[in-house]
Fold this sequence. Notes:
By secondary structure, this protein is an alpha+beta fold. The protein has helices at residues 3-6, 14-21, 35-46, and strands at residues 7-10, 24-29, 50-58, 61-65, 69-73, 76-83.
Amino acid sequence: MHVYEVIKRPIDTEKTRYQAEEGKYTFEVDRRANKHQVKEAVEGIFDVEVLSVNTINVPAKRGRYGRRVVTRRPAWKKAIVTLAPGERIDVFDGV
């Protein structure tokens, strides 16, 4: 799997901004990717040193519009990447 196929997009929420101050960055990743592939992708794309990777499988959820229209959001996977002290990723700065 190519490094640009592993990482889909950065997750930008209020919680992830606080974690970014501590050197932890969150990404949506491919569901088939493992921790080693995520680490290699982040190090290759952003040229930083990764200390650890935590992955979470986010389950699918149901939603409704009106009474009977039921929709389903697909399951996805996210990864929280911890960088070495002094390292930063500029994607999250100034957003």
